[in-house]
Amino acid sequence: MKPLFPGLMLFLPVAFPAAAQGLRDPAALLASADADHDGRISRSEFQAARLAQFDRFDRNGDGVISRADFGRIVSMRPQAGARIDALIAEADLDHDSKVTRDELAHAPARIFDEADINHDGFVDQTELEAARARLRTMRGQ
């Protein structure tokens, strides 16, 4: 069985960053997208990391990410199901309740946009630390 949560954080923040709260540190997963290890994450690195997770989310192998890929968690945790529905809806460009690889490639990158404080197309270490601080504040830590 494929692990559910490790890659979920790169998909959840696609459209609904609040959905990721409480599962893992989105800033840490954003940092893991630094493919060239230059200490900053470009938009293209973030998008590539997100797309690299597509097959992990397509747990039933039907070529799309849908509610069906999250079966047990949706039925056992209604709040998680509502969050998953919300993020799928925002990334679902043709409104068929499924997210294709192409739709994911063109979905909003809100966690990246929120972290890129100076809007230069990169998230550097200072911006990453600021994102972590904002998350801690939101969580009341």
Description:
- The chain is mainly alpha-helical.
- The protein contains 9 helices and 4 strands, in the order ααβααβααβααβα.
- The longest helix is centred in the C-terminal third of the chain and has 15 residues.
Mean pLDDT, all residues = 81
- Residues in helix, %: 40-55%
Dominant shape: globular
For the report, how would you describe the main beta sheet? 2 strands, antiparallel
User: What is the CATH topology classification name?
Assistant: Recoverin, domain 1
Unreliable stretches, pLDDT < 50, 5 or more residues?
Answer: 1-23
What's the CATH first level? Mainly Alpha
Structural class: mainly alpha
What is the string of helix and strand elements?
HHEHHEHHEHHEH
Briefly say what this structure is.
This protein has 141 residues and is mainly alpha-helical. It is built from nine helices and four strands.
Keywords:
two-stranded antiparallel ribbon; mainly alpha; 9 helices; Recoverin, domain 1; 141 residues
